[in-house]
Write a structure and sequence with these properties.
single chain, mainly alpha, 7 helices, 59% helix
């Protein structure tokens, strides 16, 4: 008889709580409303945002709008690598000002480094994150 090893989630309840507050931010709210076809923010990509935030070790008071977009950009980069939707992230953050793009990529590099370079999120982990609150809008 083989015993199946049960994985313990690395995502803490406070990371879910922070994620639940995201729609209160007007830029994130507008972004999610704009992406009604879920090209950039489907349920798996948003689950990856939670996983990345947890891996980065952010406390709820540290979490800011930029972290959401850094994690979402990274999730899109890992799963889809489709350039136009990722460019939409820049539009919502910076408007038509491309001078901020290098800063964004520098912050993205720091964010990945803070996660210990662990950018792969399994489908099982995404589903576990989604199962945390079945009534959640995601």
């Amino acid at each position: 008889m083989k015993l199946k090893r049960q994985r313990v989630s690395s995502v803490l309840p406070e990371h879910h709580e922070v994620f639940n507050r995201l729609p209160e931010d007007p830029v994130i709210k507008n972004f999610l409303a704009w992406d009604k076809n879920l090209r950039v923010s489907d349920k798996y990509l948003l689950s990856m945002v939670i996983a990345y935030s947890s891996r980065a070790g952010l406390f709820s008071l540290q979490y800011q709008r930029i972290h959401f977009f850094l994690a979402l950009y990274l999730a899109n980069n890992m799963e889809k690598d489709n350039q136009p939707p990722k460019q939409a992230i820049f539009s919502f953050l910076y408007g038509k000002n491309p001078s901020q793009h290098p800063l964004f990529h520098k912050l993205r590099f720091r964010f990945i480094r803070s996660m210990g370079w662990k950018t792969r999120v399994s489908q099982e982990e995404c589903e576990e994150i989604q199962a945390y609150d079945l009534e959640h809008w995601v």
